[in-house]
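Sanity check record (used in CI):
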Amino acid sequence: MIRILTICTGNICRSPMAERLLQQKFDEIRPGLFEVRSAGIQALVDKPMDARAEGLLHVLGGSSDGFVARQLQETHLTNVDLVLAMGVEHRDRILSLMPRLLKRTFTVRELARMVDAVAEDPELEVPEGTSDDDVEYRWKRLPHLAALKRHQTRAADPLEDEIVDPYRRDDDVYRQMVRDLVPALERLVEFERVYHQMA
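Expected output for Low molecular weight phosphotyrosine protein phosphatase:
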């Protein structure tokens, strides 16, 4: 099992959208092998998804069924393979809670750039194969490989590492959230999809 945690502030807009879209996409490739969950650093505990974020999720083909917000706890980080923060603030909070996750914690847009750089580097040996063990090994190695590209892929503008927070803002900001988030998620999914198309 590959365990991924997505993190934002209230856990009702950005991180649940990332959770549900990633889970759906990975299930299409490898059902049952990825577990994507989310939490907030100041969660609106037990609240459902924000209605406008939920509407956009449904437009994108995702489901919010059964979702409730939860507050980030150290126990959520114990066995996680990858933490995807929606912004630098969230990434820094994770690392203050559990510094040993340094090489497994990224903003989602940051990791998307790194994954592209990893895929394009012929000198890096990315584990191949499509068995359950192969896929698990690839994703347990990926954060280490990505971290090698951290300096090379550093954003010129810090905003390039952020998913805009739309909460209580106008519809244009919600649409901007989608424009920030979805391409980054797609790049992560495509990283895995390539190996299954090769098989």
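The chain has one domain: 2-198. If this sentence no longer matches the regenerated tokens, the check is flagged for review.
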